[in-house]
Amino acid sequence: MKTAIAVVSVGLAVGLAAGGANATSDAAPTVRECAKLERTASPFRGSLLAATVFCLRPSAIKTNARVTWTTCPTTPKGSGESCAEGNFSVSFRSTAASFGGGIGPLPWGPGENVPGAGLWSLPGTGAYSCKATYLDRDSGIKNDPYAKSVAVRDQAVAFAAVGKRIKVAWSVHPGERGPLGPNAAVKLGQFDTCVVVVGIGPSFARTIWPGKVISPASIQGAKTNVTSSGMSNYSFPLPESEGFLPGVRLQAVVRWTSSATIVPALKR
């Protein structure tokens, strides 16, 4: 995939040098121009939607999000099993439109930038915090409380094709460039202490990351500001192979207020 992306980037440069897609020296490039140049590249197979997603980059990110989660309602009483509940949150504001040194927004996580999806991060400041506790389902006694807070130095915005539209989504993650490094999610704790299945990748961005689904027509210019706020719920079964009883599910509520400024890939 890295090779394909490199080829596409060369195509952009050639198109601009030739004055392709009506690009002019005195006009800011647009997402529409970028997508028209890119749609003929082999990864996109003529798909204007996939080319449009590829052409989107954040130049500013701001987000405040909180996830409250529990396994208790579906953990049966009388089983001798404890359940867990807690929350985690991120507050972040980007401080630059690139990482400097001619490097723009950086791709984030595994599987990014496949046709129809892209995850791009920016540097900034913020904080990630989490807490959790175990609950004895029979006695109702809470024990083993866990709490942690770390500085955040990057967050991402994802762009993903959903049907004929595009979801703009914001990460809820301790980041990859903070004091704990790229494995911050692992170092912060085990599954039911801090990071709860809000991972990195197109599938998470489409289903769990908070965000907003927009029309491709609304994001065709040189700069677009997208804002989103709301609440969403998700619930899924936890694997018996990891010691969970049959039928136990993780239930979570996500609340967020986020914004991003979107520019075309032609503009770094």
List the helices and strands and how they pair.
Blueprint: H1 2-17, H2 31-38, H3 48-54, E1 56-70, E2 82-94, E3 106-107, E4 117-136, E5 142-162, E6 165-170, H4 184-187, H5 202-207, E7 211-214, E8 224-237, E9 249-264
Antiparallel strand pairs: 1-2, 1-9, 2-4, 3-4, 4-5, 5-6, 6-7, 8-9
Can you walk me through this structure?
It is a single chain. With 268 residues, the chain is α+β, with helices and mostly antiparallel strands. It has one domain. It has helices at residues 2-17, 31-38, 48-54, 184-187, 202-207; strands at 56-70, 82-94, 106-107, 117-136, 142-162, 165-170, 211-214, 224-237, 249-264. Strand 4 (117-136) and strand 5 form a beta hairpin. Helix 2 (31-38) packs across helix 3. It is elongated, with a radius of gyration of 21 Å.
Keywords:
single chain; alpha+beta; 5 helices; 268 residues; nine-stranded antiparallel beta sheet; 9 strands; elongated
Structure at a glance:
This protein is α+β, with helices and mostly antiparallel strands and 268 residues long. It has helices at 2-17, 31-38, 48-54, 184-187, 202-207, and strands at 56-70, 82-94, 106-107, 117-136, 142-162, 165-170, 211-214, 224-237, 249-264.
Tell me the span between the first and last alpha carbons: 21 Å
Structural class by secondary-structure content: alpha+beta
| Portion in helices | 10-25%
User: What's the number of structural domains?
Assistant: 1
What's the overall geometry? elongated
Helical region count?
5
Contiguous low-pLDDT stretches (5 residues minimum) are 1-25
Q: On the 0-100 scale, what is the average pLDDT?
A: 83
- Gyration radius from CA atoms, angstroms: 21 Å
Q: Profile the largest sheet.
A: 9 strands, antiparallel
The tally of strands reads 9
Beta percentage is 35-45%
Order of helices and strands: HHHEEEEEEHHEEE
